[in-house]
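Hey, resending since the last one bounced:
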Amino acid sequence: MNDLTRQSDRLLDDARRLRDDNRAGGRHRRGGSIGEGSARVRRQNLKTRIRNVLLAVFAIWVASGIAGAIFSGIGFWGLMALFVATAVAVAVFSSFPKVKAPKLPDINKGDVQQMVARTQFWLEAQRGYLPAAAVALVERIGAQLDALGHQLDGVDQNHPKAREVRSLVGEQLPQMVEAYRKIPAPMRSEKRAGSTPDEQLVDSLGKMSGEIDSITRQLAEGSLDDLAIKHRYLGYRYGENIDGEATDYGVPLPQFDLDKTLRK
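The structure tokens again:
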């Protein structure tokens, strides 16, 4: 009897979590891309589908035109077959190829910037398996990965920060999410060592989000320093020097006393 009671309580708890999840995070799971990288993949896939549909329809109509020229027309049934073939081609090629998230072993390949984009796209595909609080963090990380990817443009692959990004984003982050997914759903809300797997996942994602933001800021410091140096140079070269004196190509302009000049 006690076992049945515990199972009933667990079912009720699962139902409440599902309700709360749908209220708080369900809209996220039905949402679109979590960043520029994954959105770019989807746009490219859409372009490929449109191209394939146009090529297939064009080939069908050219073939029917050639057949009509050879046989002096295709007739009523030939025309019906043409429309059916066109409809089938549109239906088939508008649905393929499917957008497929990269597999876990393939994420940490290529240059580090491409790896960041693959991780973003992989994370996007995991939203449906995560609790609502984790979904919100995944979407935040998706935006952070966009900023990180921009900062990695042109960075040497052997740079210490590039290796750090590869370890954090290409290995630790996806492996942690994958480890969570392997836990049976009923056990994800059970406390163990003081916290549940759901809570551990959210906490870990929060820490990784903070670390990604920190790395992005560290990489941006170099760009900020370069901008400050260029600003000071241009100010000295074309505007004012460090002391605020007007300059002309780096040479201080002479200062004139107008009253004294007029008295002369």
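The chain is about 70% helix and 0% strand.

Sorry for the duplicate.
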